[in-house]
Specification:
single chain, 310 residues, alpha/beta, 8-stranded parallel β-sheet, 13% strand, globular, disordered N terminus
Length: 310
C-alpha cells in the first residue's frame, strides 16, 4: 500500500491521470482503499462512484474467459447483496438471472457450477439449442430458464418444450396468454407455468409490452381465463441509458405503480407479485426501487456482439 501511495504522489504520475485509471482497471485492483488512493490523484470531479461506471464500461470491452465470467458473477452477487442489505427489514434479496445470449455453453456450465441457477435467453432458437444441449442436460440438472424476449404465437410451442423452462417474462397480450395457456395444457404438466406480464413503461414503439393503463385488464384476463398459468409478476425493460443522477428511473417507478394498481384493484397480495426490472447498467438502482428479479448479462459475461433478430 505504501508503495502505491508514494508512486502516485510523483509528478510523473500526476501528469498521467488517465493512465492511473487504466492502471487500476488493467490490474483489476479490488482493494477499495487502494482504489481511492489512486483516484485521489485524478481530477476532483472523478468520484469513486463515477469510477465504478468507468470500470463497468471497461469490463464490457474485455475479452471474456471463464475466469472473467466467474469474477463478473461474484462481483454482481456482491453488489446485489450490498444494495439488498440497505433495504427495509424483511426485504428478500433479488433473484439474479444471468442473461447468457450469444455466450458459449462452457460459460453457462462454469457459473452453474458456482451456484448460479437462473439463466435468461432472448431468442427462441438459442433457448432451444442451449436448453437441449447434451452437456448442459448432464451437468446442469437444476437449471432454470427464463425466456425474456419477444415471443410470436407460432413459436410458443417451441418455447414450451424447453427442458427446465421456469418462467416466460414477456406475456403482453390476451392472445399470447391464451396460446401459452393452451399449449401448456396440451403438455399435461403437473404444475402451472410461471409467467410475467411485460409492460412498455417507456412507451417506445420498438419495444413490446402492454401499456400501463391496460395492465390490470390483462392481469384480470389471465387470472380468470388461463388456469394453467401462474401469474407471478411484472416485467419492464425501460429506456436505455437513463441517467440516475436525474432522479429515480421513471420506468421503474411506473412498474411499481402498476403493481400497486393491480394489487389494489384485483385484491392481490403485494408480496406475491414480483418486479422484474434492472439490467447490467442499472440493476442496483432497480433493487433500490423494489426489483425482485434482475436480468444481468454483460456485467457477468462481458461484451456481447449484436445479434440479428430472428
Amino acid at each position: 500500500m505504501a508503495f502505491f501511495s508514494n508512486l502516485v504522489s510523483t509528478s510523473q504520475w500526476k501528469k498521467g491521470k488517465t493512465s492511473i485509471i487504466y492502471l487500476i482497471l488493467f490490474f483489476d485492483v479490488k482493494n477499495v482503499m487502494l482504489k481511492k488512493i489512486l483516484l485521489s490523484t485524478c481530477e476532483p470531479t472523478l468520484t469513486f462512484k463515477s469510477f465504478i461506471s468507468l470500470q463497468l464500461s471497461y469490463n464490457k470491452r474485455k475479452m471474456s474467459t471463464l475466469e472473467n465470467v466467474i469474477d463478473g458473477l461474484n462481483d454482481v452477487r456482491c453488489r446485489i447483496k450490498v444494495v439488498a442489505q440497505k433495504q427495509n427489514e424483511g426485504h428478500v434479496e433479488p433473484r439474479l438471472v444471468a442473461v447468457s445470449k450469444t455466450k458459449p455453453i462452457e460459460h453457462i456450465i462454469g457459473i452453474y457450477q458456482k451456484g448460479q441457477r437462473h439463466f435468461g435467453e432472448n431468442y427462441v432458437q438459442e433457448l432451444m439449442t442451449k436448453s437441449s444441449d447434451v452437456e448442459i442436460l448432464e451437468k446442469c440438472p437444476d437449471i432454470k430458464w427464463h425466456f425474456i424476449g419477444h415471443i410470436q404465437k407460432n413459436k410458443v410451442s417451441k418455447v414450451l418444450m424447453t427442458p427446465g423452462l421456469h418462467v416466460i417474462e414477456t406475456i403482453d397480450s390476451e392472445k399470447l396468454a391464451s396460446a401459452v395457456n393452451d399449449g401448456w395444457k396440451k403438455l399435461n404438466k403437473e404444475s402451472r407455468l410461471k409467467i410475467m406480464v411485460q409492460v412498455n413503461t417507456s412507451n417506445e414503439k420498438e419495444k413490446s409490452g402492454v401499456t400501463t393503463d391496460t395492465v390490470v385488464d390483462l392481469f384480470k384476463f389471465i387470472i380468470e381465463k388461463c388456469d394453467h398459468l401462474e401469474l407471478i409478476g411484472l416485467m419492464t425493460i425501460g429506456q436505455y441509458g437513463y441517467d440516475c443522477s436525474r432522479g429515480p428511473n421513471p420506468d421503474f417507478l411506473a412498474l411499481v405503480d402498476c403493481k400497486k394498481d393491480v394489487c389494489e384493484k384485483l385484491k392481490l397480495n403485494p408480496s406475491e407479485i414480483e418486479l422484474s426490472m434492472g439490467m447490467s447498467d442499472d440493476f442496483e438502482h432497480a433493487i433500490e426501487l423494489g426489483s425482485t428479479n434482475v436480468r444481468v448479462g454483460s456485467s457477468i459475461f462481458g461484451f456481447r456482439a449484436r445479434k440479428e433478430k430472428q
